[in-house]
Automatic annotation (TrEMBL):
This is Histone-lysine N-methyltransferase SUV39H1. Residues 443-459 form the Post-SET domain. It holds the Pfam family Chromo. One of its GO terms (molecular function) is histone H3K9 trimethyltransferase activity. Residues 87-135 form the Chromo domain. PANTHER family: HISTONE-LYSINE N-METHYLTRANSFERASE SUV39H (PTHR46223), HISTONE-LYSINE N-METHYLTRANSFERASE SUV39H1 (PTHR46223:SF1). SUPFAM superfamilies: Chromo domain-like, SET domain. Its EC number is 2.1.1.355. It is an enzyme of class 2 (transferase). It comes from Anas zonorhyncha. It comes from the Eukaryota. Keywords: Cell cycle, Centromere, Chromatin regulator, Chromosome, Differentiation, Metal-binding, Methyltransferase, Nucleus, Repressor, S-adenosyl-L-methionine, Transcription, Transcription regulation, Transferase, Zinc. InterPro entries: Chromo-like_dom_sf (IPR016197), Chromo/chromo_shadow_dom (IPR000953), Chromo_domain (IPR023780), Chromodomain_CS (IPR023779), H3-K9_MeTrfase_SUV39H1/2-like (IPR011381), H3K9_Histone-Lys_N-MTase (IPR050973), Post-SET_dom (IPR003616), Pre-SET_dom (IPR007728). GO terms for biological process: cell differentiation; methylation.
Amino acid sequence: MAGIAAPRGSKSLWGLSNPGGPQSLAFCHPDSPKLPVFTPTLPKFPWILGSLQPQESPDSPKLWVFVPKLWVFTPQTLFFCPQTLCFPPQPLSSPSAPQDEEFYLVKWRGYPSSSNTWEPRRNLRCRGLLRQLHQDLARAPGGGGSVRPGPQGLPPRVSSYLVQKAEQRRALRRWELHLNSTRSHRGRIVVENEVDLHGPPRDFVYVNEYKVGAGVALSPVAAGCECQDCLSEASGGCCCPGASRNKFAYNEAGQVRIRAGLPIYECNSRCRCGAECPNRVVQKGIRYDLCIFRTADGRGWGVRTLQRIRKNSFVMEYVGEIITSEEAERRGQVYDRQGATYLFDLDYVEDVYTVDAAHYGNISHFVNHSCDPNLQVYNVFIENLDERLPRIALFATRPIRAGEELTFDYNMHVDPVDAESTRMDSNFGLAGGGLGGSPRSRGRIECKCGAAACRKYLF
């Protein structure tokens, strides 16, 4: 393949970003008529292609990638853009090419492998793709530039890692597309894993609202308010919060202004006010772009925000399958053995129902615990006013920077005075020891939040 000219009419190379974002591979693509073509003297055909036999078709889906002191085997079909990388182990004989210049074997988009060309790095603009390959090599077991090249290529575990990494990225990209096609909220979801080879979770279904389990019945709201302007008329007791003898929860910017522990009553489908009513916040869903990412400290998946979030703003709702407390007790024993914590007791007034987000849930399924969280739980009532079945909303406790991980306290406490005034329990949260109307005996789970005031155990 050495010395093959660029395809007819080719132009300079640039990186055409793939919709997958930085975690996906980009296409390389010809674009400008002034492409300098180099014809370096490279090792002979069998050495470049390793075990690829000469009688195999040039369009074979197998390609060898040569890196300093490393060989990498990659099945071409696993990549959005099957680029291969070549760093010649000896000075190039081409007088126009600098000594030890890095060359890349490029698979041109829309052309067969027989049209592959060797291009110097300065002709390429796929910065993210190149950086990604170097990162993968550094993380590969036995990689990092310590293995010298040979006719047999890289150690099998290094090659296997790179192939698995390519498969993983494609799987995560498909999952990301599925999540974004399933979500009903405005905020976009991005998925990243640059830590290990874990792919999308199995047996998890993304839902946008509660899934009602056996033995649970939701009663639709029977009445709504007649307000023309809910914010200005709230003091008169006309709006939904006033009708339930509670405070108006939001300011004009939609930020919560009541203390944690007090309930939020939003306007519902029977109210006269429209969609722009300031008392419709949680029901509008997630409006921030969020990223599901793999943590590097052993906490599994986590969630971080891709946008700045103002203090007291609604971030997300905790949804899952609503089950009875009896069913929760049975499932809890199973989850305890797995070290999982997905059961959220709905013990606003009494411990009757639980939200199980283990198999059905939204992005909150991946939010980690912290003893110093940046999210706070509020009980919200909208289309169902049964106090045993509140919706669980998470609001920002402080300004949150873009790129910061989102967390909430799995073992939350509220002011006992507020709890008494609203008839709710002062202890509530994910099901653990001492939570809810009927305390459950749970194994202690070690906390890995790393906060300065960490309690060392979740429960």
